[in-house]
Write a structure and sequence with these properties.
This protein is an all-alpha fold. The chain has helices at 2-14, 16-21, 27-56, 65-74, 79-89, 92-99.
Length: 103
């Protein structure tokens, strides 16, 4: 979550975010391109941790692994907060500080 906020804030500081806005992509597509890669990496990592815990260490889970993955898919809703802080704050450290309590 912090990665998305930090990248938007860094681009805003350097002025490259404005260059992205004049490209033929819509702002939604630009933000989706920034958020989706980190969301997918996080989902793959969380899936790996859950599978190792369940299959290798034999830690029993109440419910199906599919339900846990479904819960992880809801987490990107919190990304809106991080992007908002990054855009309004405009600084790397502001985005990082604001994203820590939400994680």
């Amino acid at each position: 979550m912090m990665l998305t906020a930090m990248s938007v804030a860094r681009e805003r500081e350097q002025g490259t975010f404005d260059q992205l806005l004049v490209t033929p992509f819509r702002p939604f597509e630009i933000m989706a391109g920034k958020a989706l890669p980190s969301m997918l990496v996080g989902l793959v990592q969380a899936t790996g941790v859950l599978l190792v815990a369940q299959l290798w260490f034999r830690i029993p889970f109440a419910g199906l692994l599919l339900h846990a993955l479904r819960r992880l898919a809801v987490l990107p809703a919190g990304r809106g907060w991080h992007r908002t802080v990054a855009i309004v704050g405009g600084r790397d450290h502001a985005a990082g500080d604001a994203s820590i309590p939400c994680c």
